[in-house]
Design brief:
The protein is built from three helices and eleven strands; from the N terminus they run ββββαββαβββββα. The protein is of the alpha+beta class and 202 residues long. A hairpin with a 2-residue loop joins β7 and β8. The relative contact order is 0.18. Keywords: Isomerase, Rotamase. Its EC number is 5.2.1.8. This is peptidylprolyl isomerase.
Length: 202
């Protein structure tokens, strides 16, 4: 009898579920680093709609497909994994014309090949175009809180974990405006402290 496949909730709210196909032993990408990945994106309704043999992915960049961003940040170099990404972490309410239906979930098969500290000088695209390919990312912005930048969109701020991976606040949509402002101040300071610590380790 085959062993049950373990599903990992890497978004901590069921939005991105991960199954490791082959474990990696290298480092994990952190916010701002460039991941070299190969991946296939599949919709249950239309099948495979995007394949990348080798693509540079800037972790945490504005306009990234949110679910793939979370997925890549959870991986180690050499790792291959599959991900089930809920519609609100993929292409949102509208979907992707001709490829992903409205409120359509997306499956990714992804391998992390390498991680670099900075993007190479090139004119080639780093990821799927943000505005055309990811309507749910529209409105993403970086706001300054007490002089510190925090990336913010409809799902709330990006949180930098101690190991450099990214996560979300699961109850952001339930917070009042004063609660959100207080949370933003805390996250801005914590993100800076953790990024400084991570940079010091490089």
């Amino acid at each position: 009898m085959a062993a049950a496949i373990e599903l990992l909730d890497v978004s901590q709210d069921g939005g991105v579920m991960k199954s490791i196909i082959r474990a990696g032993a290298g480092r994990m990408p952190v916010l701002g680093q460039v991941a070299e990945i190969t991946y296939t994106a599949r919709s249950s309704s239309t099948g495979v709609f995007h394949e990348a043999a080798r693509e540079r992915w800037v972790c945490g960049a504005p306009g990234n497909v949110r679910g793939l961003d979370v997925a890549v940040a959870s991986m180690r170099v050499g790792e291959r994994a599959s991900f089930e990404v809920r519609f609100d972490y993929a292409y949102g309410e509208a979907g992707l014309a001709g490829k992903v239906p409205a409120r359509g979930d997306v499956a990714y098969d992804c391998e992390l090949l390498a991680v670099a500290d900075a993007a190479p000088a090139t004119d080639e695209p780093l990821a799927l175009p943000a505005e055309a390919a990811n309507p749910s990312a529209a409105g993403a912005e970086t706001v300054e809180v007490d002089g510190l930048p925090v990336k913010l969109d409809s799902l709330g701020p990006m949180v930098v974990n101690k190991d450099g991976t990214l996560s979300r606040i699961t109850n952001w949509h339930e917070m009042t405006e004063p609660e959100r402002q207080k949370t933003l101040r805390i996250i801005a300071k914590r993100n800076k402290k953790r990024l400084d610590a991570l940079q010091a380790e490089l």
